[in-house]
């Protein structure tokens, strides 16, 4: 019996959760190890993907990682890894889904009403307690339609949108590992629907999550993947603005200040463009959203005056019904004052923050409050800071009690 080719081994791994997870993380070292464990020699692997054995060993041992888009594409094409598993465009050798080139029919009105209901509740109270409701709706009302040939692309678009939404709810619950799995699952569903803006929007969500996980290089990749995808579909200005804003934040985080500022400018231009098309599934992105993302980007660039101005604008623009967005904008303002070493301003902004949405159901927000506490703890010898920390501890305790049913158990001695 002949030894299986690397492509045959990959074909047998496409439904393996470890393989799919490694691809989603773009951990090519883990991918190569899985193939090697299934009998593909390192010499053959190196030859197929056209790298030296020494470089292959570095990838497999974790001494280096694949970073360049061209190398990911080279590996995907050599091993026949479907593009969507690595966040790439459909490869030329992949069979084209029949739905991809068709005109996508408008989404079902009931689906849109449900999305709107979940979004409104999320804005008011946070997504912590909505996660199970979204997953249940996905399971009970959406998933079964995927096997109904009469449903067509609408079913795949709805499944992608609700799966992405579940990812955001998991993120707000402090479960970023779970959020990543939802985003990974949402992407191929969106591709199958043929809905280009929806696919690009999911890439934007993955960029945000990568930033939260401290992987700005991956965040750059996802933002640019989203931009490439969006360029192949109808122009949705708010979506382009969101993708450019995410690109700016990621570029700022890796120290590419000039490029980040250009991306912010492009985001502003996109948001001010005439509305050529609207899209039902993509997440809303408005001037307040751009101001909020700009504040974070400028802060990472060390441009604290610009960050302060953007954070204040975000707060001014937030509507009353956007409780979590307002809370996160106030949180950004506190952090900017801390970075500026303006302790009095940080304490004043912190007092406003604590008065914001005391019943907000967001574990993510609770964790960021803990980060504020850690940043201020070294200044507690200053009276106003000490007084604020006492109030912050009490507020955190009260919020923790309200979120006790969704906060994950902590390891002994580990802070929230």
Automatic annotation (TrEMBL):
InterPro entries: Cro/C1-type_HTH, Lambda_DNA-bd_dom_sf, TPR-like_helical_dom_sf. It comes from the Bacteria. One of its GO terms (molecular function) is DNA binding. This is XRE family transcriptional regulator. It comes from Streptomyces telluris. The lineage of its organism: Bacteria, Bacillati, Actinomycetota, Actinomycetes, Kitasatosporales.
């Amino acid at each position: 019996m002949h030894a299986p080719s690397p492509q045959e081994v990959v074909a047998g791994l496409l439904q393996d959760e470890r393989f799919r997870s490694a691809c989603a993380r773009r951990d090519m070292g883990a991918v190569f190890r899985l193939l090697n464990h299934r009998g593909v020699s390192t010499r053959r692997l190196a030859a197929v993907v056209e790298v030296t054995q020494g470089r292959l060993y570095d990838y497999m041992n974790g001494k280096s990682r694949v970073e360049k888009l061209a190398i990911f594409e080279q590996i995907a094409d050599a091993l026949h890894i479907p593009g969507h598993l690595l966040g790439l465009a459909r490869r030329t050798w992949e069979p084209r889904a029949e739905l991809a080139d068709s005109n996508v029919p408008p989404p079902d009105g009931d689906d849109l009403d449900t999305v709107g209901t979940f979004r409104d509740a999320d804005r008011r109270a946070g997504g912590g307690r909505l996660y199970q409701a979204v997953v249940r709706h996905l399971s009970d009302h959406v998933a079964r339609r995927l096997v109904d040939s009469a449903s067509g692309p609408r079913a795949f678009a709805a499944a992608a949108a609700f799966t992405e939404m579940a990812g955001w709810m998991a993120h707000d619950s402090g479960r970023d590992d779970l959020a990543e799995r939802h985003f990974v699952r949402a992407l191929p569903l969106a591709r199958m629907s043929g809905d280009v803006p929806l696919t690009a929007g999911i890439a934007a969500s993955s960029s945000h999550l990568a930033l939260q996980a401290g992987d700005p290089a991956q965040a750059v990749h996802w933002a640019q993947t989203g931009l490439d995808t969006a360029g192949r579909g109808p122009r949705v200005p708010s979506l382009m603005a969101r993708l450019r804003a995410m690109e700016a934040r990621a570029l700022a985080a890796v120290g590419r200040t000039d490029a980040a500022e250009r991306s912010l400018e492009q985001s502003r231009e996109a948001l001010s463009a005439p509305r050529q098309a609207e899209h039902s599934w993509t997440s809303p992105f408005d001037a307040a959203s751009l101001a909020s993302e700009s504040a974070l980007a400028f802060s990472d660039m060390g441009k604290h005056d610009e960050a302060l101005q953007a954070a204040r604008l975000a707060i001014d623009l937030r509507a009353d019904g956007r409780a979590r967005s307002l809370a996160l904008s106030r949180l950004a303002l506190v952090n900017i004052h801390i970075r500026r070493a303006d302790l009095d301003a940080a304490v004043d902004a912190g007092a406003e923050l604590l008065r914001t949405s005391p019943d907000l159901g967001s574990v993510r927000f609770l964790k960021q409050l803990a980060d504020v506490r850690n940043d201020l703890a070294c200044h507690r010898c200053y009276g106003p800071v000490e007084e604020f920390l006492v109030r912050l501890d009490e507020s955190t305790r009260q919020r923790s009690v309200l979120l006790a049913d969704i906060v994950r158990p902590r390891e002994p001695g580990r802070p929230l």
